[in-house]
Hints:
mainly alpha, globular
Amino acid sequence: MKALDAALVAVCAALYSVFGYLIWAFLPITTPGIGIVRFWPNVVIPAVFAVLFGPLVGGLGAAIGIFISDMLIHGDPLLSLSAGVTANFVGFYLIGYISRRKIDWTKLLTISSIGCLAIAFSSLLVVSYVSIPQIVQNRLLDENEFAKLLSGIEPTVNALNLWTAVSIGIFILTVALGFLWTKWRNYGMGCIIGLGVGSTIIGFVVWLYSQIFVLPAAVGGGSQLPFYAAFIWLIWTFATEIPFLILLGPPILKVCYRAFPSLKPKEEE
């Protein structure tokens, strides 16, 4: 890594961690009901760095910045390294990488369609072949036991339905951005894919962590959370961060390109 790139990583990490801590100080919002994952609109900072200076700068800056802010807010280094650092590096690396490449739009639509259908079909399978038969087979239980069974199944079914709806919404957003926002098509696709992968890492790694360790009390605490919590964290992360990436990223990048035209990346094959 060049000295300039190392300096840019440091600046990105500093801005990301400082703004993250300030946002938490004034708006200490976490995932409704289960906590842990914070309201994090400052994601636009490493996204801009990833587009302007390359995926490695954005990814490393985000990884270091989230670790610093995590230490200031909840102080659990293992949780930060396993979930936050990993998700941020991969997510923002993908944003920078995809933003700087030529995209085969037809191929992307095909893959997105298949992925969306696979998610919807898998959710339907879970509901049809796991939840419903379990309800039917246990209908002869007494009323209290049956109510307990339903209360245990219902959150998972709701989480799967919500995840399916969000997946379809993401697909529609992808198509809309591609056709209506051609100038920023690569950036939009990078944000959707990068944030989608990062959100998935956060959701499932935090859930797995809760099965082994106790989550930090400063952001909600808890241990051995139910599996549907992973979907809720995933959806919360994506739904609360994608608006800031899509709405704030292009105006900031436009200003940077006008001030420093040499920063405008050339699309790579």
